[in-house]
Known about the structure:
Layout: H1 13-25, E1 38-43, H2 49-60, E2 64-68, H3 70-73, E3 77-78, E4 91-92, H4 93-103, E5 106-110, H5 118-122, H6 125-134, E6 138-140, H7 148-161, E7 168-173, H8 183-192, E8 198-202, H9 211-214, E9 218-219, H10 223-227, E10 232-236, H11 258-261, E11 268-270, H12 283-286, H13 293-315
Parallel strand pairs: 1-2, 1-5, 3-4, 5-6, 7-8, 7-10, 8-9, 10-11
Bound molecules: N-(3-carboxypropanoyl)-L-norvaline (SN0).
The site of N-(3-carboxypropanoyl)-L-norvaline has 8 residues, from helix 8.
Amino acid sequence: MIHFTNINDLGNLQKAVQEALEIKKNPMQNKALGEGKTICMLFFNNSLRTRLSTQKAAQNLGMNVIVMNFGSEGWELEYEDGAVMNGSKSEHVKEAAKVIAQYCDIVAIRAFASLTDKEKDQAEIVISSFKKYAGIPVVNMESATGHPLQALADAITMEEFKTAHKPKVVLSWAPHPKALPHAVANSFVEMMQLQDADFVITHPEGYELDPDITKNSTIEHNQEKAFENADFVYVKNWSSFKDYGRVMNSDSAWTITAEKMQLTNNAKFMHCLPVRRNVIVTDEVIDSENSIVIQQANNRTYSAQIVLKKILESHG
Ligand code: SN0
């Protein structure tokens, strides 16, 4: 594996999940692998779990870590070819990416969707420019259209908590006061399409995700019907894809409540965090024994560690 920008870059998902669970038993087992290697982590947006768990994973592999809050501390980057740079943008990504690559062996990037320019978001302008110009492995720490490190941690968590051989997994939209990206939901859908599971997506009409991603996955607009017999309820808000970035519905009827969880097969509650309590989910549900959000966050370390390990192994 050279780059990790999509869950499909992993090769065999089930194998990677098993390998991550092995790493979890003894996280220091590959401490020599990253010796003398450096990862640069560039954040164009806020982070808690991704920043700490990826740093920890790199350190478990013996790597040096450089973290930069590029969005607030770096020069504003230009991405257009041939741009006349007489505006606010100080540096072209052509130089920035090549310079960063002088200091590290892997570059990991967080660059959320703008939610205003669908074309640029869909083109993954930041990730694809770094891939093009840096010449070193690129890791996606949530891009405009995907968050594969999260989806891999979700797969690891479901493997640990599943009781049914073929679980029923529901991805449910829930209300949020802000317009949020599609990245987490997209990668979760792509990951679920690689699983042996009964997978259902539920959201209000108008909140359809990119059809190129959902493909043949089942969509059920009746949330209560979708919840029937579920083993996992994975919750996430996203803004409209069709009416790009719009919030059309902050309907509290979609909040995850204990009554709705009663419809399930004693389902585990999952969310990538950060979560808006009593908007997305009630306190009662997130504080219940069925909530596995903290265990899910813990698995972010092993998700990042298996990805970095694979890159170090194939890129020497
Ligand atoms: C991000 C998202 O993509 O939805 C990151 C999730 C890992 N979430 C937010 O930006 C939430 C911000 C908020 O104000 O609740």
